[in-house]
Amino acid sequence: MTSLLTYTLKYLPSTSQWALRFSVRPLSCSSQLRAAAAVQAKSKQTLAKPNMRNIVVVDGVRTPFLLSGTSYKDLMPHDLARAALSGLLHRTSVPKDVVDYIIFGTVIQEVKTSNVAREAALGAGFSDRTPAHTVTMACISSNQAMTTAVGLIASGQCDVVVAGGVELMSDVPIRHSRKMRKMMLDLSKAKTLGQRLSLISKFRLNFLSPELPAVAEFSTNETMGHSADRLAAAFAISRLEQDEYALRSHSLAKKAQGEGLLSDVVPFKVPGKDTVTQDNGIRPSSLEQMAKLKPAFIKPYGTVTAANSSFLTDGASAVLILAEEKALAMGYKPKAYLRDFVYVSQDPKDQLLLGPTYATPKVLEKAGLTMNDIDAFEFHEAFSGQILANLKAMDSDWFAQNYMGRKAKVGSPPLEKFNIWGGSLSLGHPFGATGCRLVMATANRLQKEGGQYGLVAACAAGGQVCHRSFIGASRKSFSWKQNKFIQECLI
Questions:
Q1: Where do runs of H (alpha helix) occur along 68-115?
Q2: Exposure string (b/e) for 369-391, b if CB count within 10 Å is 16 or more?
Q3: Burial class of residue 299, CB neighbours in 10 A (0-12, 13-18, 19+)
Q4: Domain Thiolase N-terminal spans what residues (predicted)?
Q5: Cα separation of 432 and 435, whole Å?
């Protein structure tokens, strides 16, 4: 750890103060897990805004999230996206011709289906007259799909939108080198044998070196795992704390899976193979086994390993979003209102993964809420160290004052309300599909627990983050048409 901290202090001058400040205030995940926080009194006001359309999530589904290289390895992304759309149609019985627009998020695009939303929609039987487009915003791509849907409905352009996301890490596009591509293009334009021979004479063996897609920042040429390692060092988060948090995620996901709480998962019959019914990356281990793994990024002193990082995942998700009046007219009882959302961006070098810390107070202020009002928190777990660093930063007046220009901290979410059905560390993280999973986990948790307010956050490459505020499913005793005490969410 000493060597890693030295690396951080040398190469991250702006985070050196973090290490000095937080090294004397280590976060013990174990102690937080054992602590029982007092339940705060909940505000019952709605976040509805005058002269604004209420926008609701009726329901959402996802294919099982699978480790890359397993059952989905012979498929294409649009196959998974089509399965999510078909599952949503079956779950909600929404008429295909009622859907005004379809939006999907993805990160590593298959060149044959660059607009995967359109290809998946056609494959799922939607009309060729239903517009569809694809968005990309790293790990918050499906968040962007959902908030784009919110904008279309709020502006009156649409009443019914399907938003989703997909990622297939089992098969990624591998390109020829730039020099080889240039020569091949020039050859296709050459008109004479002499021109062709002249171009071929310039060929070198190193032209054949392939270009692999990298999960790295273009501006810094640094992998996200490397950033997570430095962030953990800067906030003095130990390897043990990271492993403890990862074990928590896997244990809670296993429990939720066993109790049937992951109800957004729909079975998928893989062509030529068996039907997949559940996520396959949930694997609770032991701290002793986890401690045996070697650092994955900064070697040999790093603390980020395969055990406390999210894994490469294949999967797709989709949600049905409507204007409230349209939902009621169609006889739906929606699960959640979508109320507010905020996007923020940070320095992709020093603060790549700290977006939730910056966005949380903004979306809460926008909604007129405090941390005590939130009943369900769902944060994307890229790495254990990333989550724990954000919890520390959110709970620090010093960080708020020196880095955020705020007078006081926003406060960290209590763990008894935080990702209690597991998270990306255990359930998996198909880059383009995770946002919809977070949304449905929040809405379903609020419905089951009788909560009112939920908050979703996800960091992304480029130092960006999406925060959403939800007010989720109605209480069991609530009549939807009474329009009070309805659960709501913030993204």
A1: 77-92
A2: bebbbbbbbbbbbbbbbbbbbbb
A3: exposed
A4: 55-324
A5: 7
Phi-psi region of 69 (alpha: psi -120 to 50; beta: other; left: phi over 0): left
The domain ranges of the chain are 55-172+310-473, 176-211
Which residue, 347, 388, 380, 398, is CA-closest to 491?
380
Q: What are phi and psi for residue 479, nearest 5 degrees? A: -90, 120
Which helix (DSSP H) or strand (DSSP E) does residue 489 occupy? strand 488-490
Lowest-pLDDT range of 29-33, 70-74, 154-158, 378-382 = 29-33
Catalytic residue among 29, 139, 436, 466: 139
CA–CA distances in Å: residue 149 to residues 111, 321, 325, 392: 25, 7, 16, 33
For domain 55-172+310-473, the CATH architecture is 3-Layer(aba) Sandwich (3.40)
pLDDT tier, 348 (very low <50, low <70, confident <90, very high otherwise): confident
CA dihedral 175, 124, 150, 484 (to 10 degrees): -140
pLDDT at 39 over 60: no
| Count of other CB atoms within 10 angstroms of residue 94 | 19
Q: What one-letter code names the amino acid at 377?
A: F
- Give the H or E element holding residue 454: strand 453-460
Given the residues 29, 158, 459, 466, the one annotated as active site: 459
CA dist 322 to 153, 161, 381, 449, Å?
Answer: 7, 6, 28, 24
Least confident of 68-72, 96-100, 279-283, 487-491: 487-491
First-residue to last-residue Cα distance in the chain:
35
Distance (Å, rounded) from C-alpha 346 to C-alpha 353? 9
Q: Which 8-state DSSP code applies to residue 335? A: S
Q: Tell me the β-bridge partners of 56.
A: 322, 337
φ and ψ of 182, to 5 deg:
-65, -40
DSSP 8-state code for residue 397: H
Which residue bears the tokens 């949930």? 282
Structure-token match 């979508």, residue found: 338
- The two tokens of residue 312 are 């490469």
Told to judge if 436 belongs to the known catalytic residues of this protein, a careful annotator would answer no
From the list 149, 152, 151, 61, the residue with the least C-alpha distance to 103 is: 149
Q: Please count the other Cβ atoms lying within 10 Å of the Cβ belonging to residue 323.
A: 19
Gap between the Cα atoms of 69 and 63, Å rounded: 16
CA distance 74 to 72: 6
